[in-house]
Amino acid sequence: MTVTQAVLAFVVVAGLLTVIPGMDTALVLRSTLTRSRRHGVAALGGIQVGTLLWGAAAAGGAAALLAASQTAYRVLTIAGAVYLVWMGVSMIAASLRRRVEDGAVGAPPPASGRWRHFGLGLGTNLMNPKVGVFYVAAIPQFTPAGVNPLLMGLLLATVHCVLGTLWLSAVLLGAGVAGPRLRRSGAVRWLDRVTGGLLVAFGARLAFEARA
């Protein structure tokens, strides 16, 4: 198997995983619909930086250590679960407190909030140990004989980022069209509640799996 063949095979696997709706899609949708396309881009950027970091960790052996150590995996999983539940509850609580005046609903959101959305995307990705385990399993299978695993891991992570960026950009552009209308209708409060509920559910599932 050549490097080109390995990358093409990985594109098929990673592409299928990318288009399956998950937390990444929900976060980009939420950031775009509730704030703006720029906030959606910030969330997308945080997610992809997290993907690159996991790929580098897996290629460097850190994620392999995580996968081999049951204790380390459980600690990170529980920490991730707590983080996700906290973020989800915060979103739901904020949606219940939010009272937007009719004249300010369509006002452009402040640029300062973009870093928060970037951090949300980054944190959600980094606190999910399954991403690291995926790379630990994928890198050996898609590394041709004689190729440096570290370089191959970084290459696969980059390919994964490109696929994710293309898909989430399409989601972002579509959401950007509907965003202004939804913000005027006050539907953003329900979107925050749905996204927050998904984060809580995903965090609870991680916590349950950590105890298993």
UniProtKB/TrEMBL annotation:
- First-listed, main subcellular location of the protein, grouped into a coarse class: membrane
Q: Which Pfam families match?
A: LysE
Q: Where in the cell is it found?
A: Cell membrane
| Source domain of life | Bacteria
Name the record gives this protein: Threonine/homoserine/homoserine lactone efflux protein
In terms of InterPro entries, this protein maps to: LeuE-type
Q: How does it sit in the membrane?
A: Multi-pass membrane protein
Q: Which organism is it from?
A: Isoptericola halotolerans
Q: Which residues cross the membrane?
A: 6-29, 41-66, 72-96, 150-178
